[in-house]
Specification:
The protein has 262 residues and is of the alpha/beta class. It contains ten helices and eleven strands. Strand 4, helix 4 and strand 5 form a beta-alpha-beta unit.
Length: 262
């Protein structure tokens, strides 16, 4: 690390009194680590989701020229995907066949299917945490024609796996990740902004095109979010997770102790 970099870091290492977390306020006020941070260090923490999910209209879906009933299996990576798949089916007046197979990234996603179907009567295959956990299951059903309900912004792991494995996959954009309207937010009043996705960084620029970072510190969770912060021309002060702080709240606490001389 150069002396210039160290000097710049020291200049930016001023007291943190307010933090903007770019996610929805947690439901549990008592045991959440952010509320513990606020109480322990007398810091104001505000929650505001920077992105929202918006369903693609049936009219726009039709423009993709996808016939849902041409497929024999569906890959679900989130509850949003489940909701919007069945919404599109309802709007298209499609009755999903009883022998349709469902591949869900987690058990929670699989259980969520019961909102729409009687899951004990269906063929459901479940991963444990990530999309990669599904790959072995998918390989065992390589003759299926898979439909992948997804957002306009999605990871590449599933499409790349299906392509390299020579398996049939149709991507169906059924919902979109769009910036939330933040124009009522006094963004410059915060000492630190915590981001969790590249979309959140894009939402900042979308809502505040004239925004200047100046002394506002920025934290990013995950390498793709960190990259987005840097590519947007901002200074990244905190990159989570850290070896000794696997969560964003933990990384923020380490920084607060340093910046506030605690």
């Amino acid at each position: 690390m150069s002396e210039i970099t160290t000097k710049n870091e020291q200049e930016r290492l001023t007291k943190v009194e307010s933090i903007l977390v770019t996610q929805s306020r947690p439901a549990d006020d008592k045991s959440n680590p952010y509320f513990e941070l606020a109480s322990r260090y007398n810091i104001k923490i505000e929650f505001r989701p920077f992105i929202q999910i918006q369903g693609v209209s049936y009219k726009d879906f039709r423009r993709q020229k996808i016939n849902i009933l041409d497929h024999t299996a569906v890959i679900f990576t989130s509850r949003n995907a489940v909701d919007h798949f069945f919404r599109i089916c309802q709007e298209a007046k499609i009755e999903v066949p009883a022998d349709m197979k469902y591949f869900c990234v987690t058990e929670q996603t699989a259980n969520y299917l019961q909102k729409y179907i009687v899951i004990r009567k269906r063929k459901i295959f479940t991963g444990t945490k990530t999309a990669a956990d599904l790959f072995d299951l998918i390989r065992k059903h390589k003759t299926e024609k898979f439909l992948f309900p997804c957002s306009n912004i999605r990871g590449t792991d599933i499409p790349e796996f299906m392509d390299t494995s020579g398996l049939h996959l149709t991507e169906a954009i059924m919902y979109e990740t769009v910036p939330t309207d933040l124009t009522d937010l006094a963004i410059s009043n915060f000492d630190l902004i915590a981001f969790f996705s590249p979309s959140g960084v894009n939402a900042l620029k979308h809502n505040f095109p004239e925004f200047r970072q100046n002394g506002i510190r920025m934290a990013a969770f995950g390498p793709t979010t960190a990259k987005a912060v840097n590519e947007a021309g901002f200074i990244l002060d905190i990159e989570a997770p850290l070896p000794n702080a696997p969560s964003m709240a933990g990384a923020l606490e380490l920084y607060i102790k340093k910046a506030n001389n605690l």
